[in-house]
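step: validate -> pass
step: tokenize input -> pass
step: predict -> running
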Amino acid sequence: MVSEPFYAATLACWGGVHLTLTYLCADRTSSIARHTTSHDSLVKSISESGCHTHRKFRAAGIELVNIVRTQRQADHLTRIGAKYVCNSSALSFCADLTSAISATGATLAFDATGGGRLASEILAAMERAANLHATAYSRYGSSMHKQVYIYGGLDRSATTLDRDFGMAWGVGGWLLTPFLQRIGPAAADRMRQRVATEIKSTFASHFTAELSLDEALTLEAIGKYSQQATGEKYFINPNKPLPLAKI
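step: predict -> pass
step: emit ->
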């Protein structure tokens, strides 16, 4: 599970291709799971529609456990074919998450919310899933290492860990920009080109509204996109012309 911040307002350039951190993160986290850490399943909290994330992981052959915040979002992902969808606002969330992790064997997760208890709940569900198959008791919990990477901050409260998931665990942060710097310009360009090539298929997305830079700075627009609402992405187009009345 690894990722980086999903922004409610997406800064992009209009001109056939709009490259966003969201798309690059979906591409990179699937590659990390498959090639860097040899995981074939992953848990990921989804901060918007999740369509491109679902498509990218399905194409990569990686089982994805989606964590969403509303039933509307859960229903949408289920309609487009997502197999494992857990609604964090549901009373059955912990049981649903444990069941999905047990079915997939996921021990790696990416958390876009950052604050609150979600990272702790994911680790605890992984521990419960591991103990379902345990053959002996250990006071230290399972020996299976469980890892959560925080890549966003939708919840700005403190990250709380309840420590009910044994001793084999880790929580860390992950950001896309340092990663791009580390792999170098050539590899970063290949990533961007892959997103550009699949911008109308794997990475196809929907925007609530298209805003110019001037419009993005109005109190009305700020009040809307700062809510970071599920399924409410705003496309900031620096090249969008001003309304005639403002010229």
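step: describe -> The radius of gyration is 19 Å.
step: cleanup -> pass
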